[in-house]
Protein 1
Amino acid sequence: MLSVSSTKPGILRPFTTRHDLDSQNCHKVVSLAVFIVTNILWLYYFYLLYCLLTAPFYFGPSHPRSSVLLVGIICYVAYHWIKDKDTSFRGVYLNKMLRHASFWSNLFNYFPVQMILSDELIEYSQKNQEFSTSGSDDVQGHRCAFSGLPADRNYLLCYHPHGLMGQGALACFGTEAVGFSKVFPGLKPWVAIHPAFFRVPLMREIVLSLGSIAATNNEIRYQLDTEMCGEKGNLVTIVPGGGMEMLESRDDSYTLYLNRRYGIFRLALETGSALIPTISFGETKVYTVIAAKRGTFFRRIQDYFIEMLGVQTFLFYGNGLAPYRRSVNVVVGAPIPCDRVSHPTREQIAELKSNYIKSLTSLFEKYKVYFDPEAKALEII
């Protein structure tokens, strides 16, 4: 369900709740229960995975159960590595039924997660109405100026900050929890996640069904390059900060690991994809992350493990199994058009990066007064 917020001028707020969460305690109970059950199921999943892998040693190599399990494991691995090895970047498993499951709305209503369309995005939509796939500006009986984004190009949406798990990115772009298909009709969403998720049995089938792809250059390029995928209207969501940004999660600060990121801007120019800056208020508040301060010996060790091995070494906590119940507000900025350049120069990449950072900073300063007035200035490292 989509609705228009009248409390914050110029903001279109899509969400899926049927009632006001602040006045309906039942939603809090349901959302909390869903989160607890989800965590328990994850623990049980890893327990079953452990039992599956150790069963041959437990029963003995000659036991019939061991033979069946070994054959099953060999067949699954063979299918994964030989027949189905390219699905992590082609995204052929996208399942609309799983994306639209009501489970996701109940899960993310725990915070809740909300998507806010910025004034800049609405203005961009008005200028490109003739190319938009949305034929009406009437949403649930409310008149709104946003009519979608043109589907005649591909988009690279950069989500900031990473936080611990990127709940806002998953809710808004990885599922239909906030009504992505209603807000951006005609666009096909893809979310780039850590390649390790595609190496875990059964989990890879889930993330593939949600439209996830591996967060590597080749995989993202395939979805953005119209010559490679043969499609337009793809919207790929990435979290540029990655594991390094996870270590910077603090309640009162917004620190983005972006100074050393040039690949996304080169990729946008090489594929001619529009860059969409997106800032999430509250993403870093749902968990408390315990990490060493920058410049210390232990922090250098943590940085090494993340950059070289891709392993996060830090502690975190929330409300027991569940995170803190704090609102996550995802503000989507206006696309930054990029002309296709086969071999962009350093100057072109630097200019695009500078424009992107200016747009992102402006977006943060404009909307923090609504969603996090006590936030410090945006820090880019």
Note: The longest helix spans residues 25-59.
Protein 2
Amino acid sequence: MRLLVLFLICLTSAMAKTSSQSISNLSSPPKVLVTIKPIHSLVAAVMEGVGTPELLIEANSSAHTHQLKPTEAIKLNAAQVIIWVGPIYETAIQKSIDAVRKSVQLITVSDLQGIHLLPARSFRHPVDGCAADLWQCHLGHHHHDGDHHHEISGKDGHLWLAAPNAKVIVKGIAAQLSQLDQRNAPHYLANSKKIIKKIDELHADITQEMKTVKGSKYLTYHDFTQYFDMAYGTECVGAVRVNPEVEPTAADLQDVRREVSHGAKAIFSEPQFDTKTIRTIADDTNVIYAQLDGLGFGLEAGPNLYFEMMRRFASDMKKALQSEECGR
């Protein structure tokens, strides 16, 4: 299957190089492909009324480990614009992205001007001397230079889980699409203003909702909540799998059990991961188990998904941190 996918990518990429026209000279909106649902939702909102972006990874699958299907490879090569978080997140499909890089306009969200990137957590040392629950402390360290594309390994890629970053994404995507498709620039920019207002309201609502559990400690199966923690004051104190591509060791599991004894109230997993290990830990340590979804599984792809996903994420976390009955 993998060889077939690579063959399709190489074949259609070669065809694209010989037949593609300058994207700035297109007579219709560009064919936009977005890798994951949360980013796709924001792009769809920016493009609303102009065009509809395609979604690459539609299944309940993690971009850390996702293997492209032949139909997805065809989508990848039919696109004129590809939008992805970047190599810090979609590690499993990076080679496929690299194979078409020269024949498409590639927009890397983690390289957008003003995006706030956080180092991957080790759960052992504070970041740059900052307290681990203060978003504002990190704002002076946001990433804003696209030339550093190859220097961002070791960064946390789940950057959309803080509403302030979503605003940066919307602004950046609207600006870049406006440059590529100047005829529709007024629509992109007008849409972006509406979405940013909506994101501001979302951020205020979640900030208010999470006040009652601010400072609450919890554990995760795979560390994916750092941006949410920084924005809204909760605190993940450990992860069963520090690297989603590497199985946890006995020492990792011992660290998790130790953190439970230090006051962790809950342990969370994501829908795309096997829950057997984390459920066993929850049962052994008598902490609450629940799922958090940061990708929009089960939600209809489109401009409303990001807002539905974020509200559900906040609500599910709050319930678990407040109620000993949730998830058990």
Note: The radius of gyration is 20 Å.
Protein 3
Amino acid sequence: MVNSKDNSSTDSENSSGGVPDSKPSLYFEGEKVLAYHGPRIYEAKVQKAELRKNEWRYFVHYLGWNKNWDEWVGADRLMKHTEDNVLKQQALDKKQGMEKSTKSGRSAPAKPKSSADVKLDKEETKSNVPKGKKRKTDSGAEKGNVSVEKLVKIQIPSTLKKQLVDDWEFIMHQNKLVKLPRSPCVDDILTKYLEYRSKKDGMMTDSVGEILNGIRCYFDKALPALLLYKKERQQYHEAVSDNISPSSVYGAEHLLRLFVKLPELIAYAKIDEESLTKLQQKFLDFLKFLQKNQGTFFLSAYDGPKASEGNGKDKES
């Protein structure tokens, strides 16, 4: 994501006329480079190069990724796109046991991030396609990757389905948004569920904790790319910053939207059928918990700011 702090400080920290006397930039605008993102190395392109506080900062676009992942990085995150460095990238891919992408020269991010990241990129790409061509693109993107039969089925209770309909109605027809930050937030709800399971089972199981951490991870990754209506985009930028996770700001309304997308997201995690069945049962139990506490967790009316059309490619209206 774009570092808003870096972006906002550009004007004040750059010199108004030319580059000050300092060390020259190692990379130029438009240069193809290799960039560290987490533990992996990916191909990227330098979009901007700026000198800030006597240090060069680079705005990079990861090749093949959606522009939402563009970000400002320091020189320590970049390498020249040389044959030796490409071999280093490939060796790192092999070391981490990941399959190399023959087309882009990069592999999918390492788990647990790969499942969400790869799917988010695909979903965002699909949202860029004109509606008349979308069906063809969808089938082409999914072909050879995920079949409908392999999608885990998550049965959303009828009262929660109505909640989703009301959610859409508030935003799209009444131009009302959820007031942020929400209380309880997603983190609070996950904690309450963990306490509920611990009390009911007499102990806290590691599997429940892992699943809840996975839900939190998927939510934080998926929210800006998949779970927002276009009218909510401006509010998101105002409420969430680099050091604030969406799960600490948003609540049950947006968490429920995640469960609509989860089957497709999980399909990319390469989970065996037995584990998928258990996961399906856990999700159903969690949804029943949401349903049981629907009056406490969900808003009956949205009293946040008036919805803005905003920009970006989000949930279709």
Note: The chain has two domains: 4-95, 148-297.
Protein 4
Amino acid sequence: MNWLDNLIGAVMPERAVRRWQARQALGEIRAYEGAKRGRRTAGWVTSGSSANAENQMALPTLRNRSRDLVRNNPWCKKALESWTGNVVGSGIRCNLASHKKLGKAYKRWANSRKCDADGHLNLYGLQALAARTMWESGEVLVRVRWRRPQDKLAIPLQFQVLEPDYLDSDKTQDLDNGGYILSGIQFSVIGQIEGYWLFDRHPGEIGRLSRSLQSKFIPAEEIIHCFRKTRPGQVRGVPELAPVIMRARDLDDYEDAELTRKKVEACFSVFITSGDSGNSSIGAVEREDKPAGRMVEKIAPGLIKRLGMGESVSFGQPTPSGGYPDYTRDQRRALAAGGMVTYEMLTGDYSQVNYSSSRAGLLEFRRNAEGWQWLTFIPGLCEPMVELFLKAAALKGLGELEDDFELDFTTPRWDWVDPVKDMIGELLEVASGAKSLSELARRRGVDPQTMWQELAKDYAELAKLGIPINLNNLIAIGAETDPPDPGDPADSKQTKPRKRGVSHSRRKEHA
């Protein structure tokens, strides 16, 4: 205790006790190395702001930079394509086959472009577009467009995928009824979303500056807002590239600088010097004897400078780029981590992995992708779309589902690294009772009832034609002819990855 503490203790004992308690608490906090202050953390600026406070000002810049990287950086574009192709692929499908009439209507509607308000994509194309927008911009808005009878649509429902720029992010205020508007989203007094304030056109559209930007209120029932929520209370999504935007930019600059250095070195390939002159030819100008005595300045690849008698020739030696491959590889690993893909998926470089490590990386990626599918995309986008279709179908008299009907979604099937061994493993699980045949069918991306009906039809047709088939013999033949993988000596029966995807599906669980 110093003299000030002694003085306060003599005059105000209670105040002195509080000061001592505060000092003890500060000491406990600084017992954590991460909470200590010093030269190592002098430039570490942190804030205790909420997710919405952090996002509101940063989101426009993050979105624009993320889009720029996808447009101009091949690695970021590849990460986006790999992510979308794996988590959405040819579409996340809902099975309504148990209701024959509704199932046919849904299949016909989903496979046509009549579900798209812009008339370009079918339902699964809209899913892929929404997933791309979420990855690139952090979130996506889907406008629900109900159509009139004169539009002559079998299902009077269309969807319009919008970028988050349509949302009036600057609109934040309290309302007289106790509600509030936060980043263009209007909430009730109890925090329920009532609607969205949207512009009628994209704010960055060509020719838009000549018009006033006025947002309009759209009820929540007419908007599907999907984003990955990572913090409690978060109402807007953040681009997936946000943690690695600066790394991607720095890597671009580094590669450009390295390329420029190589170009400059290539310009100085041959030097001719004279034994009685100490002058260097670097930076000199090439003189052509002309009547006017004009000096010609020129540097180009392959330039040879002649200086006169007693000349000697030396060749430029390009300096090696020490550490260039290792540095760029590490930076691309960081880009892959930020883009939620593996390094091999990002670059196509499998030189650093064998069969086992490649498979382990794919399993980790697939767990993350499944979490995104079943925790974000399906409940946030796919379910609302199907529920709206069922509502529109009921209005057209196509029937209704039971109240306790559970929507069943099938995700894209995964590619098997070793098809024969993976299939044998699946069959062993079924034989041991650890997995049902229905679950096996769903993991193959098909509805069990549809699969049984198709098998019964095929077997009946084969029997009618007198063609025998024995699945057990086919499995045994496949196991015997499975070639070894020379890249992994620990396993004598590895097979090379198939080029065409063999994927899985998963049935949604409801409480």
Note: The chain has 14 helices and 14 strands.
